[in-house]
């Protein structure tokens, strides 16, 4: 029986998935309290963008969001949307402007109007996050269902959604994973899009740094084809493994930071029977995520579990123990390596 292990890792927000924050210079320009301060702040706007141009840009972005998020009311519309999506990742949000549940076993009792308004704020923020990610992630399909719409009630019940909000990740009409409740939903939304949809921030493709392997032949070729003494790391995961989703941003960060020092790949253990026979059978994989370490085509170790710090520590130990250099210090390395992992070197 395949086990899912490890704590849930938290990685750099910059690598969790699509979406980007409003530039700091633009926020400062809009919030400057006096004309003189506004002129100074607006002088720092990127590409000579003035406040009026910024407003027009936001209007265009709002139009893009309206085009990217399709609202559904019934099963016919959902089936048609899934058919059009084909092999693309589908992110389906079921939300409400009147209900915002945590997803905990017991929801807090709210007696005062002020408390009820405060409880709704995270779900209102989620609405903007979902829209921003939809705008920035062009390769995924974004669908939404309003739990407040009486016409959508039957569809919500058919999807067995009992917690509002809920976000589902669907591919080839198959439900891969869903997050119930607002607690950590913004983080999990970005991480799910990254894990299932190959969409990272800064218009990056995760597969550009972490190669996806789809067959035993590709697995063997990747391990054997690396340059001499290069550490090879294979992330063995599964499509419905939540810890695998949460640690993947850290895997991507490591792959970027260790570029030319290590090679990273990912393989879904449950993708094909042949892969399962190789990984679960020949290589004895019993838990996911498991990280296999190779050098010069030979196995040199493995790490089991979803702890980001432990994974970084193991990779640093592999490099230091073999007498190989670590990546030079830099902004990306600083983001990827917590203090606990830096004890192995001055990196």
What does this structure look like?
Helix 3 (51-68) packs across helix 5 and helix 7 (185-197) packs across helix 9 (242-257). The chain is built from 12 helices and 12 strands. The longest helix is centred in the middle third of the chain and has 24 residues, at 113-136. The chain is α/β, with parallel strands linked by helices and 347 residues long. Residues 6-14, 20-27 and 331-347 have low confidence and may be disordered. The strands form 3 sheets. A 5-stranded mixed sheet has the order 2-4-3-5-6, with helices on both faces. Strands 7-9-8-11-12 form a 5-stranded mixed sheet, sandwiched between helices. The radius of gyration is 22 Å and the shape is globular.
Structural descriptors:
alpha/beta, five-stranded mixed β-sheet, 12 strands, 18% strand
Break the fold down into its secondary structure elements and pairings:
Blueprint: E1 3-4, H1 24-31, H2 35-42, H3 51-68, E2 69-72, H4 75-85, E3 90-95, H5 113-136, E4 141-146, H6 153-158, E5 166-171, E6 174-180, H7 185-197, E7 210-213, H8 216-224, E8 231-237, H9 242-257, E9 262-268, H10 273-282, E10 287-288, E11 290-295, E12 298-304, H11 308-321, H12 331-336
Parallel strand pairs: 1-10, 2-4, 3-4, 7-9, 8-9
Antiparallel strand pairs: 3-5, 5-6, 8-11, 11-12
**Overall form:** globular
Number of helices: 12
From N to C, what is the helix and strand string?
A: EHHHEHEHEHEEHEHEHEHEEEHH
Ranges where pLDDT stays below 50 over 5 or more residues in a row are 6-14, 20-27, 331-347
Coarse structural class: alpha/beta
What Rg is obtained from the alpha carbons, in whole angstroms? 22 Å
Strand order of the largest sheet: 2-4-3-5-6
- Strand coverage percent: 15-25%
């Amino acid at each position: 029986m395949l086990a899912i292990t490890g704590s849930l890792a938290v990685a750099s927000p910059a690598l969790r998935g699509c979406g980007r924050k409003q530039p700091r210079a633009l926020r400062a320009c809009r919030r400057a309290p006096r004309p003189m301060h506004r002129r100074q702040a607006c002088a720092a706007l990127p590409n000579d963008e003035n406040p009026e141009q910024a407003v027009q840009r936001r209007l265009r972005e709002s139009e893009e969001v309206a085009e990217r998020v399709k609202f559904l009311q019934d099963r016919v519309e959902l089936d048609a949307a899934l058919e059009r999506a084909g092999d693309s990742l589908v992110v389906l949000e079921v939300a409400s402007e009147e209900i915002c549940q945590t997803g905990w076993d017991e929801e807090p009792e709210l007696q005062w109007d002020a408390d009820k308004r405060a409880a709704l704020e995270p779900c209102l923020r989620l609405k903007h996050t979902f829209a921003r990610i939809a705008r920035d992630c062009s390769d995924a399909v974004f669908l939404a269902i309003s739990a407040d719409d009486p016409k959508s009630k039957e569809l919500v019940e058919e999807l067995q959604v009992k917690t509002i909000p809920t976000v589902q990740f669907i591919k080839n009409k198959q439900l891969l994973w869903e997050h119930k409740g607002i607690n950590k939903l913004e983080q999990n939304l970005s991480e799910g899009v990254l894990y299932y949809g190959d969409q990272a921030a800064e218009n990056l493709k995760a597969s550009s740094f972490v190669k996806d392997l789809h067959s035993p032949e590709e697995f063997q070729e990747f391990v054997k084809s690396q340059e001499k003494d290069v550490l090879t790391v294979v992330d063995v995961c599964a499509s419905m493994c939540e810890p695998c989703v949460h640690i993947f941003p850290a895997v991507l960060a490591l792959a970027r930071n260790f570029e030319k020092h290590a090679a990273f790949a990912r393989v879904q253990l449950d993708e094909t029977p042949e892969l399962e026979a190789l990984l679960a059978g020949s290589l004895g994989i019993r838990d996911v995520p498991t990280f296999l370490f190779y050098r010069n085509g030979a196995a040199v170790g493995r790490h089991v579990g979803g702890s980001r710090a432990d994974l970084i520590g193991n990779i640093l130990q592999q490099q230091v123990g073999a007498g190989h250099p670590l990546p030079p210090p830099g902004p990306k390395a600083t983001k990827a390596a917590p203090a606990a992992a830096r004890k192995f070197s001055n990196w």
